[in-house]
Amino acid sequence: MYHNNSIDIPRILIAALRGGSGKTVVSIGVIAALARSGKAVAPFKKGPDYIDAGWLAMAAGRPCHNLDSFLFNESLIAESFLSHSRLADISIVEGNRGLYDGLDVTGATSSAALSILLQTPVILCIDCTKSTRTVAALVMGCMSFDPLVNIAGVILNRVAGVRHENLLRDCIQSYCGIPVVGAIPKLPGDNFPERHMGLIPTPEHSWASASIESISRIAEKHIDIEALCNIAKSAPYLRPTPDTSDIQHIDVKAGLRSVVAPSENIQVNLQEKIEPVRIGIVMDSAFQFYYPENLEALVDAGAELVYMSPLGSDELPDIDGLYIGGGFPETHAAALSENFRFRNALKERAETGLPIYAECGGLMYLGESLVLDRSYPMAGILPVSFGFSKRPQGHGYTEITVGRENPYFPTGMKLRGHEFHYSRVIEWRGRDSDLVFNMEKGHGIIKCLGGLRDGLCIGNVLATYTHLHALGCPHWARSLVHLAERERGKRGSCLETGMTGIKRL
Q1: Which pLDDT band holds residue 191 (cuts at 50, 70, 90)?
Q2: pLDDT digits (tens, 9 = 90+) for 157-187
Q3: What proportions of the chain, in percent to the nearest 5, are helix, strand and coil?
């Protein structure tokens, strides 16, 4: 709804005092309950996260978009939020870590900073284990810490019983003057097992839908959904900035661009794709970590997306380029290794110039082997083998300078991303010159003479532990599509002349 050039977007941000407080499960439950009631919910995740975002997307029945001021600027955050909220009844943002936790003493990139930017009421989800009156002190502290943060309600989590709940409610309402909009008892953890400091990805188990339905019923029973909606409706109108006054939506599957006029709720589809290049996307339970904006950016740059899986097929489709995202290839190492026809076909195409961009799990698959209980051969495109550790080998934001020539990024370009991996290099047969990223922040692939390095590049293949977000690095998608166009032209010329055996670039 528009009013005096402003937009009415009912919205809340669900935050916590720390990670592990249960805010993701609460967010999933609230979103699923709203969706079950017939509301169109736009889900968002603060911070660089794939797993939580996957659960939120499944609960909402639509993609979840990430909002992160380290990866891209505040103007783009506002643009993304407005763009993906316009056709929804309510927008739900899940925060990360503690409400005020950021990169520095000012709280840069924190959930609190995001709530201020988007003028969004905050609902605090608090783990009440073995606490009563102290919970009220914690809420009061959060309320007074930054007056610009609108803490509008509290959801009590892991409540021990009726007496515990009543005392908590009395303390918060007496001392803090804000409503308790929910009280969830301690729940068994079977429906939401955790892996690697987060929830297991939804594609990895068949009972994800049943889990979401179960937690939605718990939310309906223990959370006042109507009160949450009223808080969301109390959020002020958002006035688009000049940068967000004309926002484009991308329909990835159809390959269409839809323009939404600022003053009317009408979508106009413009068919723009004439014989687009075909970019392969490896999408299955081993490789599932993709930002929606990255896929949208490829389509917008001129690509048709071709989804494939080495777990489901032993043939490589007809493609002009390939994007392999992150995931957990180690949980599918045997199946990936046994599909030697797919591995060999991919290696042959890579050696003849197929552009391949890979992140984290994709990097591991392109290597020679994954070493777990035994060694599992992988695609063998890159001269490196990987093992695994019990602790993260890289976790957090990354800052990169492109230090060497490569087909994707100009030398000297600064990139921001993030990494999270338990894998590590156990055998390296490459050269220092094969690594094109200098790590200013983060760990990357390996330490070379001169510092930590990432971005293993051989020919048209570039693989990295760093995940990039297309909003923060629009150059990436255009480069991959441009290389794919060159590959298509080269293949066409070879077919016309009957040439074979194209040398690696």
Answers
A1: low
A2: 999 999 999 999 999 999 999 999 999 998 7
A3: 30, 30, 40
Contact 25, 94 (CB under 8 A): no
Same domain, yes or no, for 55 and 148?
yes
Side chain identity, residue 328: F
Whether residue 250 contacts residue 278, with contact meaning beta carbons closer than 8 Å, is answered with: no
Give the integer Cα–Cα distance in Å for 347 and 30: 45
The CA distance from 263 to 273, in Å, is 27
Identify the CATH number of the domain in which residue 6 sits: 3.40.50.300
Note whether 131 and 280 are same-domain residues: no
Residue 163: Cβ-neighbour burial (10 angstroms; 0-12, 13-18, 19+): exposed
Scanning the structure block, which residue is given the tokens 């916590």? 16
Active-site position among 64, 128, 142, 360: 360
CA distance 379 to 286: 15
CA distance 5 to 476: 34
Cα–Cα distance for residue pair 471/72, rounded to 1 Å: 6
Domain count within the chain: 2
Strand order across the 247-251 sheet: 247-251, 256-260, 267-270
| CA proximity to 17, closest of 93, 96, 99 | 99
What DSSP designation does 11 have? E
**Domain of 381, in residue numbers:** 276-495
pLDDT at 272: 44
Report which of 440, 459, 462 is spatially closest to residue 450, judged by C-alpha positions.
Answer: 440
End-to-end CA distance of the chain: 53
pTM of the model: 0.86
Look-up of token digits 């892991």: 158
Report the C-alpha gap between 381 and 428 in whole angstroms.
13
- Given the structure tokens 């924190």, which residue do they identify? 110
Q: Is the pLDDT reported for residue 271 higher than 60?
A: no
Hey, what are 376's tokens? 């599992």
Active site residue 360: yes
In this prediction, residue 263 carries a pLDDT of: 29
